[in-house]
Prior knowledge:
CATH superfamily: P-loop containing nucleotide triphosphate hydrolases
Radius of gyration: 17 Å
CATH class: Alpha Beta
Helix content: 25-40%
Strand content: 25-35%
Structural class: alpha/beta
Number of helices: 9
Distance between the termini: 39 Å
CATH topology: Rossmann fold
Oligomer: single chain
Largest sheet: 6 strands, mixed
Shape: globular
Number of strands: 9
Amino acid sequence: MSNILECKALTKRYGGKEALSAIDLSLEPGRIVGLLGPNGSGKTTLIKLACGLLTPTAGGIYINGEAPSKATNAIVSYLPERIALPLWMTTQQAMDFYGDFYADFRRDAAEDMVSRLGLELRQTIKTMSKGTREKLQLILTMSRAARLYLLDEPIGGVDPATRDYILKTILTNYSEESTVLISTHLISDVEHVLDEAVFLREGSIMLHESVDTIREEKGKSVDELFREVFAC
């Protein structure tokens, strides 16, 4: 089984600052992976490189064996940390846009989630609360039948009940052939849905392990191990 995402000595610098330092990482299909680290650790940089929004300074990143491109973007569904849709769009128009733009967009799945989360079809993004905007963006992202989902802080600004629904949505809306990479610092909230954890610190991978192995060999939860590794 080929890796859906692979980094080989991947390095990214911004001027003199190294955001990622020659990292090696391989993710197989059918896994939910937590990309875990404090702010400034390189999580968003890695996700943007996988989307082709940034280019590596050195090394390489590959989606299904190819460098990020228009072709790989057709199988990657990206949830940015901030909403990337025009503020004048309504919920209905946003679904129309995704339906026109992405061949793998599942309109029925999107409409079901919009109904369950109580979003109004005619409300504009501009008049939505931060939490409602995040719900809409997540609905659109998870309604694609993608091979790789890249979620940058998907539960950062929502209440606990919505957080639970979002995680349930992630679990029930990806196939066994797809991989979900969730970037977050809210480890205790996402731990129960994760298959693997990647600890990122100052642009370097400190650990990449299955959640079961962490619990069995370390005798700790992912959250407990994270707090230990990243203690000030």
